[in-house]
Write a structure and sequence with these properties.
Elements lengths: L10 H17 L35 E5 L17 H10 L2 E5 L6 H11 L5 E3 L8 H7 L7 H7 L1 H9 L1 H6 L10 E5 L8 E6 H7 L7 H14 L33 E4 L2 E4 L4 H15 L12 H10 L4 E5 H15 L5 E3 L20 E9 L6 H9 L4 H9 L6 E4 L2 E4 L1 H4 L7 H8 L9 E2 L1 H7 L3 H10 L4 H4 L8 H26 L8 H10 L2 H16 L2
Parallel strand pairs: 1-2, 1-3, 4-13
Antiparallel strand pairs: 3-10, 4-10, 5-8, 5-9, 6-7, 11-12
Length: 550
């Protein structure tokens, strides 16, 4: 997740996106070599909808090429997608032989730009095309990927049926003009859409006779007690990579004052959190906490390795993280140092006891990560569609989420239970790693994610409790759907937000670290306006109106 929607517009990412725009523009001269398509996509036969049911495995001697990331869960475990049992078995089950290529870890965007500029495209690309410069429609109009409407109509009955039965999700997975552009990754249950929030040492709270904090005043008292009575050098710490205070921007602490880091909708208008008065109060709070030593003194540079060390050593008693990669990873680390240590979720903070948090982490049902487009260079688009449609079939649903029956799961009273190969791996692989070898349930891909994966992946009761605690927010009321600027607006919007986000980061760091007064906030807001914040809001507003009209 994200995998994470609110932190998408990081300065470096935007800079790379602008670079991508330049690269793509340079490569447009070669479009004639990639072929053309009519408005219904390659192989269009007009508006006739003849959905063909596919019998798997498909009888074919053709092979296809597939470009996609090796999930972070498997880096260091295997060298490529070719070595992953899931991908080997996927070919066997569908009957389609695949040749895989992966970009270097963490360099998918750069590698994609180079590949697109070269004109040497695979049949399929697994990528987040919502982050493509100019958006999915630009990728289609520039001749890189196919508009899939006609191909889905004719050759993807499983996906077509799912979208017809779920019109709200159907609205998310196409563009403003109605183009389908990828085979989507869909979180099939509300339970799967919340996975992050505040985490705290419950054993410390019990020793100190304190409740799990709910209000900002309770948090202040708790962090002071952690510092003074538990000797915590960094009572509250969190990862600040790739962006300062990265993990807090879904609403932890910031949301207490009615804002998030990015854009949200309220009372019919789109707002930008860092320009609202609530952001000033957030800065005031954190500046005070930093001055008092309640925040990690290295808060501006904390990465995941430093975060692990802080928690393991007992230097930190509270943070923000995920149920799986947070509580699941950190619980054994803190236990190794203190067998009584227990990490639990805390609710998103509020000002007044009993208030419902306005914001919190919550992803949409449609996630643009792990989605698969078919390129204009595809040797057989119809075969690629039939291959990808397998993930939305009943058999494919079980395979993508749980792997192969009898190997990675067993049916027990109608419930697919992961085997010890995944949950107690003989090679000492963590469940997230073992699951990723045999299924895709624990990350993403072209399928509908099943809640039953998470019920087992979250092995600890504290993890399962965390989801229930963190989902109790009003985030859905204010969250923007997956909207996009038009191709024409995209470069303008990216340039504006690159400058504004750089300014917001400068303001946040300087004020929280005490290098500037909180009273400088208004001058920063004026600078945002001079950088054309109003135009960015105008672009977002138009995009929301187009989305609502889909």
């Amino acid at each position: 997740m994200n995998t994470r929607s609110i932190t998408r517009w990081v300065s470096t990412g935007l800079a790379i996106g602008l670079l991508g725009t330049t690269l793509l523009a340079c490569s447009n001269g070669g479009q004639a070599n990639r072929g053309t398509q009519n408005e219904e996509g390659v192989n269009s036969g007009g508006n006739t909808s003849v959905t063909e049911a596919t019998t798997y495995p498909i009888q074919t001697d053709k092979s296809l090429t597939y470009w996609g990331d090796l999930t972070g869960n498997l880096i260091g475990v295997v060298n490529s997608l070719n070595d992953v049992p899931f991908f080997q078995k996927w070919q066997e089950k569908t009957g389609v032989q695949l040749e895989f290529t992966s970009p270097p870890a963490g360099q998918a965007k750069e590698a994609l730009n180079v590949m697109l500029a070269s004109g040497d495209l695979p049949d399929m690309i697994e990528y987040n095309f919502m982050s493509f410069p100019g958006g999915p429609e630009k990728a289609i109009s520039d001749g890189y990927i196919l508009r899939l409407n006609d191909l889905i109509d004719k050759h993807a009955p499983n996906l077509k049926k799912y979208l017809e039965e779920n019109p709200d999700i159907d609205k998310m997975v196409k563009t403003d003009s109605g183009s389908y552009y990828v085979f989507p990754f869909i979180r099939g249950d509300e339970y799967l859409r919340v996975f992050q929030g505040p985490i705290i040492r419950k054993d410390w709270l019990d020793d100190l006779g304190l409740p799990v904090p709910e209000t900002i005043d309770e948090w202040t008292a708790t962090l002071r007690a952690f510092k003074e009575k538990k000797g915590a050098a960094a009572p509250l710490s969190m990862v600040s990579k790739p962006r300062f205070f990265n993990e807090s921007y879904n609403g932890a602490f910031l949301g207490t004052y009615g804002v998030t880091l990015g854009f949200y909708q309220e009372d019919g208008a789109i707002k930008f959190g860092p320009a609202e008065s609530g952001f000033k109060e957030y800065l005031r709070l954190f500046q005070g906490w930093y001055k008092e030593g309640l925040l990690d003194k290295n808060i501006a540079t904390v990465d995941s390795k430093a975060m692990d060390s802080n928690l393991a050593a007992g230097a930190t008693g509270a943070t923000i993280g995920n149920a799986g990669g947070g509580i699941g990873k950190w619980q054994p680390l803190v236990e190794a140092n203190d067998p009584k240590a227990v990490l639990v979720a805390a609710p998103y903070p509020v000002l007044n006891k009993g208030d419902k948090p306005k914001f919190g982490q919550r992803n949409q049902a449609y996630s643009s990560e792990g989605t698969v487009a078919i390129t204009t260079a595809s040797k057989d688009p119809e075969l690629a569609v039939r291959l990808l449609d397998y993930g939305y079939s009943e058999e494919g649903h079980m395979f993508f989420n749980f792997g192969e029956e009898g190997v990675s799961y067993e049916m027990v009273d109608g419930y697919p239970k992961y085997t010890d190969l995944l949950l107690k791996n003989p090679d000492k692989l963590a469940p997230a790693q073992a699951i990723s070898l045999h299924a895709r349930g624990s990350y993403n891909g072209p399928f509908v994610q099943d809640k039953r994966y998470a019920e087992q992946f979250f092995a600890l009761q504290t993890q399962r409790d965390a989801i229930e605690i963190w989902k109790n927010t009003d985030a859905a009321k204010y969250q923007l759907p997956p909207i996009t600027p038009t191709p024409e607006e995209s470069s303008e919007y990216a340039a504006i937000m690159n400058d504004i986000n750089t300014l917001v980061d400068e303001m946040t760091i300087k004020i929280i670290l005490g290098e500037e007064s909180v009273d400088q906030f208004e001058s920063y807001v004026e600078k945002m306006k001079s950088l054309r914040l109003d135009r960015a809001i105008e672009i977002q507003t138009a995009a929301l109106e187009r989305y609502n009209s889909r």
